[in-house]
């Protein structure tokens, strides 16, 4: 299936985890993919993997917390591929965890909000004009199950940022619904990644018990499972879906 043949896509945080799997999945379905990340060697490896499979991709070193960097990402994508049709705004950090709200530092708060919330807004700010020039398209923002409920692992800044991503998503969805742009959020539960796996290693008893209690499926997701949700939201199969925060959480939010 080539649902994205002739389409150009941006994936931020594309060097690992959900972003890597999503970039590869887009390319496998015909998209030209701009893999955006801070870490160049890892990002270049994703591009090489895509090209080895016959796909088209480029790496753009990007810090989503820097407006000029994001602007350059969109400009380089359009220059290379001639257009922009979809974007997965996935880049994010976890920040400090296992702390009650009052014990977080201002430095950690600012860092997490700058990347996870302001960075998502920077991406949309520059992606939307490019999408309008292409005649419309789709944006998926990566929120979290913790964008829908309270943090149970002591990272209030992360939960606040991810709740904010959903508010940003819904607002933009309403504003651009009649301009051919759909904007949705994906809200993954526990998913194997560079954010989650080190925490599972550091706090195995506590987190495995939490997952067992919270997730009806009783397991951690594979990042490819989340990638498939993102592709569906960006595809024509989801043509009447906008402003939605879709849980991909093994049933967690159904509790």
Structure description:
- With 255 residues, the protein is α/β, with parallel strands linked by helices.
- The chain has one domain: Rossmann fold (3-Layer(aba) Sandwich), CATH 3.40.50.
- 47% of the residues lie in helices and 15% in strands.
- The longest helix is centred in the middle third of the chain and has 28 residues, at 106-133.
- The chain starts with 7 loop residues before the first strand and ends in a 7-residue tail after the last strand.
- The model has no long low-confidence stretch (mean pLDDT 96).
In short:
By secondary structure, the chain is an alpha/beta fold. It is built from 8 helices and 7 strands, in the order E-H-E-H-E-H-E-H-E-H-E-H-H-H-E.
Question: What distinguishing features does this structure have?
Answer:
single chain; 255 residues; Rossmann fold; seven-stranded parallel sheet; 8 helices; globular
Task: Give the secondary structure arrangement, pairings included.
Blueprint: E1 8-12, H1 17-28, E2 32-37, H2 40-52, E3 56-61, H3 67-81, E4 86-89, H4 106-133, E5 137-142, H5 156-176, E6 181-188, H6 196-202, H7 204-214, H8 223-234, E7 245-248
Parallel strand pairs: 1-2, 1-4, 2-3, 4-5, 5-6, 6-7
Helix pairs in contact: 1-2, 1-8, 3-4, 4-5, 6-7
């Amino acid at each position: 299936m080539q649902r994205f043949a002739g389409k150009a896509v941006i994936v931020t945080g594309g060097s690992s985890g959900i972003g890597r799997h999503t970039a590869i999945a887009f390319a496998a379905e015909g998209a030209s993919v701009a893999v955006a990340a801070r870490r160049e060697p890892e990002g270049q490896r994703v591009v090489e993997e895509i090209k080895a499979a016959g796909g088209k991709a480029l790496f753009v070193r990007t810090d989503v917390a820097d407006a000029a960097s994001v602007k350059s990402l969109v400009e380089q994508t359009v220059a290379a591929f001639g257009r922009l049709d979809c974007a997965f705004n996935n880049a994010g950090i976890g920040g400090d965890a296992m702390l009650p709200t009052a014990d977080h530092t201002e430095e950690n708060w600012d860092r997490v909000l700058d990347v996870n919330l302001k960075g998502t807004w920077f991406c949309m700010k520059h992606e939307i004009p490019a999408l309008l020039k292409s005649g419309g398209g789709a944006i998926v923002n990566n929120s979290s199950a913790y964008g829908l409920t309270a943090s149970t692992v002591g990272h209030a800044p992360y939960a606040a940022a991810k709740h904010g991503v959903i508010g940003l998503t819904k607002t933009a969805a309403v504003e651009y619904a009649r301009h051919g742009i759909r904007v949705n959020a994906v809200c993954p539960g526990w998913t194997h990644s560079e954010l989650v796996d080190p925490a599972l290693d550091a706090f195995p008893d506590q987190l495995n018990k939490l997952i067992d209690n919270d997730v009806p499926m009783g397991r951690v997701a594979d990042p490819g499972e989340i990638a498939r949700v993102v592709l569906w939201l960006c595809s024509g199969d989801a043509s009447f879906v906008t402003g939605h925060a879709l849980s991909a959480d093994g049933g967690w939010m159904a509790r």
